[in-house]
Structure formats: structure tokens, C-alpha cells
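Margin note from the TA: students keep mixing up input and output lines. Inputs are the sequences; the output is the structure of the whole complex. Example:
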Amino acid sequence: MSADLSPWLLLLLVGFLPNEIWRLIGVVLARGLDESAGAVVWVRAVATGVLGGVIMRIVLIPPGALASVPLPVRLGALALGFAGYRLVRRSPFAGIAIGEAALLIGTLLFG
Amino acid sequence: MSVPPAEASSALAAYTQGLAAASRSVFLFVVFGTYVGIGALAHDLGFSLPWALATTLLVWAAPNQVILISALGAHMAPLAAALAVSLSGVRLLPMVVSLLPLVKTPAVRTRNLLVPAHFTAISVWVEGLRLLPGVARARRIAFYNGLGTGILASACAGTAAGFTLAANLPVLFAAGLLFLTPASFLVSVYNSSRLAIDRLALGLGLAVGAALALANVAFDLVWTGVIAGTLAFVVDRVRKARA
């Protein structure tokens, strides 16, 4: 698959351009806006809301190998990771490590 | 919470401070692990290592790369694949629009904003929003570019490692790599949100996102962002008006 040009052309047309266009539109829309503008506060809330959606989408409709982990284990690991973050010095690293450990142990016990 | 960096004397010094901030970021590890999964996926579907690295450099958005690589690997029609990638890429728009006002100066040229816009992916955006307020405004673009370079370099290293190790990755380990994305987004977005409106938007995004994903609504992420973000914005305004 690496010898011909087509994967490279596909990367540009299917991967790069359809994705980068949103960053470029963002550059245009951000012109003339300053960070305290109501529109920027709203857009930032929208961006944060989308992240919440991305998190739940991956946990509820998991891609690839994550689908082999039972749903209650996925949800439980997410909740335990957040609890771990709150309990261990508000450290994101601790939260992620605890969430991952919960996912692995939960799958071994209940998978 | 790290101490805001001291004022940099030059753009190069600010860029270096950005690189140093990347080296201390939890995302250095998260992104490495996430991209181990992406490198392995590209290997399994028959792509070359330079091609896999190019997707990381050019697309620089992990969920979109998963869509791109799986779609092309499954020989999906290019137009349908491009549409799927683009739908997932919409989320970059509000991230760029909310980030650039933070790094701009009145004299800045649009072309100097293209690189920070390209570096904007969830990891760099979250760290940028957290750290930029502590950086002198004139140095913010250089700092943010340094931050982006450091985290993107870690992603490239992860891509190469995953591509090389692909055949030896157990399923449970691969599942753990995929789980890095939701686990890290949740705690790091919460951790970097200092304002009530950010936490509200995140919580509403989780609830609305879950409902729309389960209901199989088309464009669920776009609707989730608009509904959760607008609700959070309105609630925040009402609260402030009463205070």
C-alpha cells in the first residue's frame, strides 16, 4: 500500500483538508474578537460541551479493542478516575492512572 | 498547578518555555499512549510508517485519525470518509475561535495565527487555556507553538512506537490505550476549568452527549456542543445578573 501515490493523495483529500478547513474557518471567525467578548465566552463553552460529548461517545460507543471491555467497567473506570483525581491532590496524572488501573482490573474480573 | 513562567526575553525564550511546559504536561504521556494505539492501527491496516507519521503531523486530532485510518483501511468511498473526518473535525472550530483571542495582539498578522491554529487539538488547547494567562501577551504565540511542538513530538514518537510494536499488543492493552482519551479529557478539562461556566459546560456536555449518542442522533457532537454550551452560557449570565 505504500508504493503508490494514492494513499498520500487520500491523506491530503480525505484526512488533511476536511479537517484543517475547520481550523482555517476558526482563524477567520476569530478576527476582531477579543477574549472577553460574549461570543468568545459562549464559543468556549460550546467547545467544552463538545468535549463532554466526545468523552461519553467513546465510553458508550467504543472504538476497536475498547468494545471488548464491558459497559459497566468502562463507566465505572471513568467515574473512579475522576474520583481518584479529586482524592489524590487533584492530580490529573493520578486520576488517569487510577482510571486505567480500574479498567484493566475490572476487565480481568468481570470481562 | 505549575507556577506561571517568568517573562521571556525573546520569542525563542518563550518558545523554549513552551517546550518545557510540554515536557511537564500530563499530556506528554497521554498523547504518547494514545498515538501508540494509532500507530498500531495504521500498521494493522497495511499503511506505511511515513504515512502514519504524516497523518499525525497533518491531521493532528486523534479521533479523526482513527476515523481516517479505519475508513481508508476498510476501502470506504473517499467522499464518505472525508465527510466522516470533517464531521469529527467540526469540534476544532470552537477551540480555535476561543483560543486565538488569547494569543493575539493588535499588530498580529493572520499568517502568524495559522501555526497556532494547526497546533490546536484538545491536548494543546487545554494546556494553552491553563498556562497562557501567565505568559506575557506578546510572547504567547511563541509559547503556544513551543507547547504544541513538544506535545506533537510526543505523538510522533508514540505513532512510531505503536507501528513498530503493533503485532505484539494484547487486546486489553489496546483497550487501555483507547481509554486514555476519555479518562484524560475528563480530568484535565475539569482541572483546567477555573470558571463555573466551564465546569457547567463540561457536566452538561457529558449528560447531553450521552443522551444524544445513545439516541443515535445525527451530528450528535455538534448538537451536544451547541445545547450544553448555550445552556451553560445562559445559566452563567443569569447567575451573574443576580449576583
